Fold this protein.
Amino acid sequence: MAKVRMYTTAVCPYCQMAEQLLRAKGVAEIDKVRVDLDPAQREDMMARTGRRTVPQIYIGDTHVGGYDDLSALDRAGKLDPLLAA
């Protein structure tokens, strides 16, 4: 299974929904980066993704985006192959 990294904060309903979807897909380990605890991590996230909001999700080296993007990928049938890579 591909490595999953998620930039997140402590209180973020979209982060929680993204984690639930990933867990339902069989992802056992999510590398969570708490940008609310470390401003340098938020700066890194914004430089890498061009976005300010969380969650920002990477599957392997692929930037998926936020929860809405993750959910759309799943509906399109493209999430499982990405996770399996």
Summary: The beta strands are 4-8, 30-34, 56-59, 62-65. DSSP finds four helices and four strands in the chain. The helical segments are 13-24, 39-49, 67-75, 79-84.
